[in-house]
Amino acid sequence: MSQSKKDLRLRGSPSSKTEGATSKNEVDEYIERAKERLSSIPAKLMVMSGKGGVGKTFISVSLAQYLRKMGYRVALYDADETGASVPFFMGERKGEIFMDEETGELIPLLTDDGIQVMSIEPLLTDKSTPLIWQGSLRTKFILQTLAMTKWDDPHIMIIDLPPGTGDETITIAQYVPPLRFSLIVASPGKLANGIVRKAINFSKRLEVPIIGLVENMSYYVCPDGTKLSILGESIADSMAKDFEIEVLARIPLDESIRRAHDEGIPIYDIARGTNIDRELRGLAEKIASRVNLPKI
Ligand SMILES: Nc1ncnc2c1ncn2[C@@H]1O[C@H](COP(=O)(O)OP(=O)(O)OP(=O)(O)O)[C@@H](O)[C@H]1O
Ligand SMILES: [Mg+2]
After folding, report:
1. Which of 118, 148, 237, 280 shows a CA-CA span of 20 to 30 A to 249?
2. Is residue 157 part of a domain?
């Protein structure tokens, strides 16, 4: 199979008014092909929050790593185009995405631990140039990559969504076919409370079943063992009650998590034997059972 990367490079902004323009037929074809391709993946999990910086990417990447460790084939799709960070969190800053020249399919980046990753980040020519794309271009990129990516028969696809309920999130919720689910990530505090509720209602309105909620940065444990609610009061229980959803994990605010990301080390290596390790493993096991992954 011949693979080439030369056609894949993206500039930060369109060079002319017409670049990126797409005919309706072309979009319809992407939608059909994306649906067809994704239908063969047994479970699609949208990791969302509405709120920025609460740890959506951390949870997406950690879930991919733990599920992979349990023996599952995992696809990780980075739907955050302007703030793509999945490859960074996985230490794959130099990884590449190829195109099969015969079929035109995109071959995802494969991490050392065998996770298949599709992200805009490896396709950008200059990592420090901001992506200046309006909604239609962003939607097109999502549809195009979903239509063209050749995954290697994953058991599950994890989709890391950007903050908010904008173009990327709407496109994914609209066109990713069943079986798809959402996992809500929240942090404590009043601000998160308001914004995360909107994301839950978004998921309900677009008829994406909610698999549960993770409270990240839930508490901080001082060296003397005292637990502090640094970001404010926990909102997990009231959300669970109001929306009848389950709290699947509560993860502390801990320096080791930030360090794992900065150094590109899998979280299970850095947090082995800790509460973080137990919560994340438990989360992965619950997800596997809720989406009916086969026993491995
Ligand atoms: N429990 C935690 N303890 C300490 N640091 C954390 C924790 N969770 C996430 N972080 C750190 O917080 C930062 C934000 O996390 P992350 O990028 O996963 O959030 P996000 O919700 O995906 O953000 P965005 O809305 O920009 O996509 C990262 O530097 C990450 O390493
Ligand atoms: Mg993110």
Report:
1. 118
2. yes
